Amino acid sequence: MSPNFGIGCLTALFLFASDARIGWSAGTGEEAMSAGVDVENFTPLRTIRVASVNDLMTALDDAHAGDLIEVADGDYHNPQVLRIEGKAGRPRAPIVIRAANRGQARIVGQGGFQIDRCAYVAIEGFSLFHKDVDLACRMTSSHHCRFTRNHIRLDEIIATERLERRLHWLGIDGDDSHHNRVDHNLFEEKHNSGVMDLHRRFRG
After folding, report:
1. pTM for this prediction
2. How far from chain centre, in Å, is Cα 73?
3. Sheet holding 151-152: strands in order across?
4. pLDDT tens-digit profile of 79-126?
5. Three-state SS string across the chain, please?
6. 200, 142, 122, 143: which is closest to 166 by C-alpha?
7. Could you give the C-alpha distances from 60 to 37, 45, 49, 87, 114, in angstroms and in order?
8. Which of 2, 9, 170, 173 is deepest in the core (most CB within 10 A)?
9. How far apart are CA 66 and CA 45, in angstroms?
10. Under 8 Å between Cβ of 93 and 70
């Protein structure tokens, strides 16, 4: 049976809305529940099943509104972050990237997911065990995106004292980021300096 992340784990729901200030807000009311992608009631227009890093990266590059990219069980030794750039899903036709079996598709390479200038994109059900030089998920200048039911335990390869910087595990940034949702994820075994969820306007 696949793990049910969010039951007995970290269940906080974060609603992020970016403006001229640095900050974040959390809530579980109507506004928060309307943020992100409704993966629970998603019916794909097209399903793309992938079972290799190359196929996954190709599917992300070719994704269209209404697509479900279903990722088979296994270890994915990605040579770089998994980029999703300039993709425009819609409220009733989002783009969902989902592990076929929750927790069994493991990202173990050089980085997690980077969502840049996107709308209505969801990442669901992955185990992210990659090196911590890159975030598990970073949303930049994106809106109505969601990161849900994932297991995050990054591989701490260098002490942050040597790097002279803090290492964060998830971030949302950009002046145009709003109505993004992070919920029902398990974060564990973080020992280096930095936070698990960071929302700010990065500069530089």
Report:
1. 0.77
2. 18
3. 74-76, 105-107, 127-128, 151-152, 186-187
4. 988 999 999 999 999 999 999 999 999 998 888 899 999 999 999 999
5. CCCCCCCCCCCCCEEEECCCCCCCEECCCHHHHCCCCCHHHCCCCEEEEECCHHHHHHHHHCCCCCEEEEECCEEECCCCCEEEECCECECCECEEEEECCCCCEEECCCCCEEEECCECEEEECCEECCECCCCCEEEECCECCEEECCEECCECCCCHHHHCCCCCCEEEECCCCEEEEEECCEECCCCCCCCCCEECCCCC
6. 200
7. 17, 16, 12, 9, 11
8. 170
9. 5
10. no
Angstrom distance (rounded) from CA 108 to CA 38: 27
Residue with structure tokens 């910087």? 165
